[in-house]
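Q: Is it fine to ask for two folds in a single conversation?
A: Yes, each is treated on its own. Send the first.
Q: Here.
A: Result:
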Amino acid sequence: APGTCILVGRVFNLITKMRSSDKPTYETLTAALQEMQKLIVFYQIQQVAMPKIGCGLDHLQWDQVRMIIQSVFVQNDLEILICHKI
């Protein structure tokens, strides 16, 4: 369901839409990141690397996504590395 996060091995899978052809919303992305945050706390993860999630083909705006990431993880002692092409 949109707004969930599934940990498979060392990969967090953020579920932000019902079908691959759908577009995520900032609300479903926020909910999925909040679920990811719970898993990070549970497994005591200290470092995460991720792309500019939702900002490629899904057309979410990076400035808004970055603010969501910062607000979700503000309480965590977590290093987040954002990877992107130049």
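Q: Second one now.
A: Result:
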Amino acid sequence: MPKSQITIVEASAGSGKTYTLSQRYLELLNQAPLNSILAITFTNKAALEMKGRILDFLKKSALGKEKFLSPEKAFEAMEAIIRSYNFFQVETIDSFINAILCGCAFKLDLSANFKTETEYKEYLAYALDELLDQAQKDKKVLEVFKNFLRQYIYVENKANWFPKKAILATITDLFKKSNKQAGKIIRSKIEIGDILKLKQQIIKSVFELNQNLPKATHKTFVKSLDSFIAKNKDNFDLDEISNYFFREEFPITGKEIPPEKIEKLWKDIRSHFEKLSEMEAVSKFNYYVDIFNLTLADFAAKSKKDDVLFLEALNKEASVLFNEKSLSLPELYLRLATRFQHYLLDEFQDTSKLQWDNLEPMVLDALSVGGTLFYVGDRKQ
């Protein structure tokens, strides 16, 4: 059995990555069938450039101008490419994953003729409009939007009374993120009521602090406290708090020492501000997530009706095949009409975890029988 091999090439932009990958491809052609080699790039432009470079090397080798391959082997490789161009597989990872999905469409409840589209934003906007209409009839959906508005007004402190644009922008971003990971987006357990309750406790403590300030308290801090109390009776924005609260020690002039009661109150207030910051950060997208999950159901229904799969979601759909063990490697190779034994990956630093999870079973299978993995990446990126 041939010995398996993993080769890592560190290369930055403009350092001849295409040349190196193309040269490696020719080395493999010298020892392996055309249909056993898969080269993956990240853009169509890079794929075309690499194909052009490989063909140019073959032509020069056939004419004896280069020595990548012997003239006989170069002619043999060119004839193989002409006869079976579909096996000359230098393509983007999205193209390759799309080929897998086309071969396994029925396992994903897709028709054999499903379309791959890029513009998913219109579908999300349509699904959101449908959800807004549904809120007029469904009390549960209406409550989701009410909770969102409380968050939007009292926590995010937004003055915009037309938040639909903000919702759409956020759920679009969540859609992108959800398709880069195999798991689901999960909301925090912290609710708007928990945040408002803590804010009111802070306002009460700040008021008590203001009533018992030592005479030597920094005058600027005294003014900022008066302003804070005057403006914020029930709620406040974290951005409005005085920078003095970032200090560990109570702001007092000279060598004065604040009373023990003030020090304790100061410590408690700072602790509450820290807790509030964490709660707001963790729960900020809670109600966006609720809306996103409801929107996604309608989005999926409309996509299925139109027999569309979006480019953004290809890798996530493919992960279902492997994660649920509904597709074995032998079956995959049968549907692809080939079994790859040699993998070349460009721009490895741009490969997401989900993309690699989809490739890994095939790569490991190839390595287990003497195959190879050759990848190029830029450590700096």
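Q: Anything structural to flag on that second result?
A: Two points. The radius of gyration is 30 Å. The mean pLDDT is 89.
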